[in-house]
C-alpha cells in the first residue's frame, strides 16, 4: 500500500466526508497531507504506536493550557503512526522578512511564562526531562564548528566562546516547548499577530532559558530584551545567550548538511549579534 492509499484508507474510517487531499510535505521522520484545507494527517515513516499515542495526549494537554492556538488532535491511528489534527492558521516566521522583533518577543515572553507555570504533574506522563548540562552543549557546538563556513570576522569571537567555561547548570526544570524557533511560530503576515505554535515533538521539562535562547538566535537582541521583560522575575539572560550561541552553530551545520539555504541564511545573519566582529 503506497502513502496515498494509506491516507485515503484512514480517512474513510475517521473522516469519511473528506473531499480533497493534498500532499503537504515530507521530512526526515514524517509524511503529511492536508485534507479539505482544515486537517493535517501525518504518518511516521517508522511507526511507533506508543510515541504516536504519547504525542496525541501531549497535544491535547497543551491545547488545554496554551493561550495561543496549537495543533489539536482529531484522531490517531497509533499502529500506523498516524496523527490527525486541526490545521493551525498562519505563516511560519521562517518565511517572513523583517519581523517586528520587540513585539514578537513580548508576546512570546508572556507565552513562555504561561508554559513555565504549568504544574509538573500535569505533563509528567507525556514529556520527559531534557537535562543536558551546558558543558555538553558547548562540546557539541565545538564539534559542529567549521571555521571555513563562517565569515572570518566572526571566527575569533566564536573560538573565544568555545574555549571559555560554560555558565553554571540550572537544576530546576520547567515545562516548555523546547524548540521555539521561528520555524515553529505562525503569524498573520499582515498584522504580525501570533496565530499558532506548532511542532511540540521536543516538548520537555527543560532549562527555562532554552527557548529564550532560540528567540535571541532567530529574532535578535530586541526580541530577547522584550521577552525577558515580559517574562518577569528570574529572567535567565546569561544562559539564554549561551544557548543562542550554541544553537546557531548547530543550525548552520544542519543547513550545510541538508542544503536548506534558509537555515544557512538566518544563521549567518545571526552571527552579527551573537558573535560580533571586533
Largest β sheet strand count, sense and barrel closure = 5 strands, antiparallel
Question: What helical percentage do the residues reach?
Answer: 40-55%
Rounded Rg: 20 Å
Q: Tell me the number of strands.
A: 10
Instruction: Kindly name the structural category.
Output: alpha+beta
Written as H for each helix and E for each strand, in order along the chain, the element string is: HEEEHEEEHHHHEEEEHHHH
Low-confidence spans = none
What general outline do the C-alpha atoms trace? globular
Number of folding domains? Answer: 2
**Helical stretch tally:** 10
Instruction: For the record, give the distance between the C-alpha atoms at the N and C termini, rounded to a whole number.
Output: 59 Å
What is the annotated CATH architecture of the largest domain? Alpha-Beta Complex
CATH superfamily of the largest domain: Aminoglycoside phosphotransferase (APH), C-terminal lobe
* Overall pLDDT confidence: 94
Task: Tell me what portion of residues adopts beta-strand conformation.
Answer: 15-25%
Task: Look at the structure and give the CATH class of the largest domain.
Answer: Alpha Beta
In CATH, the topology of the largest domain is named Aminoglycoside 3'-phosphotransferase, Chain: A, domain 2
Give the strand order, joined by hyphens, for the main sheet: 1-2-3-5-4
GO molecular function: kinase activity
InterPro entries: AGP_Transferase, Aminoglycoside_PTrfase, Kinase-like_dom_sf
Keywords: Kinase, Transferase
Organism: Umezawaea tangerina
Amino acid at each position: 500500500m503506497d502513502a496515498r492509499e494509506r491516507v485515503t484508507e484512514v480517512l474513510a474510517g475517521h473522516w469519511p466526508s473528506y473531499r480533497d487531499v493534498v500532499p503537504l510535505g515530507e521530512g526526515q521522520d514524517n509524511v503529511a497531507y492536508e485534507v479539505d484545507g482544515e486537517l493535517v494527517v501525518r504518518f511516521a515513516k517508522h511507526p511507533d504506536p506508543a510515541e504516536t499515542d504519547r504525542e496525541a495526549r501531549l497535544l491535547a494537554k497543551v491545547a488545554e493550557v496554551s493561550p495561543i492556538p496549537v495543533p489539536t488532535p482529531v484522531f490517531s491511528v497509533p499502529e500506523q503512526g498516524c496523527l490527525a489534527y486541526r490545521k493551525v492558521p498562519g505563516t511560519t516566521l521562517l518565511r517572513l522578512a523583517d519581523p517586528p522583533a520587540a513585539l514578537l518577543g513580548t508576546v512570546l515572553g508572556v507565552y513562555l511564562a504561561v508554559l513555565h507555570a504549568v504544574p509538573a504533574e500535569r505533563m509528567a506522563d507525556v514529556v520527559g526531562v531534557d537535562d543536558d548540562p551546558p558543558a555538553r552543549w558547548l562540546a557539541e557546538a565545538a564539534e559542529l564548528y567549521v571555521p571555513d563556513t563562517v565569515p572570518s570576522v566572526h571566527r575569533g569571537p566564536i573560538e573565544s566562546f568555545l574555549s571559555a567555561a560554560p555558565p553554571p547548570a540550572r537544576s530546576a526544570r520547567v515545562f516548555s516547548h523546547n524548540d521555539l524557533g521561528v520555524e515553529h511560530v505562525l503569524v498573520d503576515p499582515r498584522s504580525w499577530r501570533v496565530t499558532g505554535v506548532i511542532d511540540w515533538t521536543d516538548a520537555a521539562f527543560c532549562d527555562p532559558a532554552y527557548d529564550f535562547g532560540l528567540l535571541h538566535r532567530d529574532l535578535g537582541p530586541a526580541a530577547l530584551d522584550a521577552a525577558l521583560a515580559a517574562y518577569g522575575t528570574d529572567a535567565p539572560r546569561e544562559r539564554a545567550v549561551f544557548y543562542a550561541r550554541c544553537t546557531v552553530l548547530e543550525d548552520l551545520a544542519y543547513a550545510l548538511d541538508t542544503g536548506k539555504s534558509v537555515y544557512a541564511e538566518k544563521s549567518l545573519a545571526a552571527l552579527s549579534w551573537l558573535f560580533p566582529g571586533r
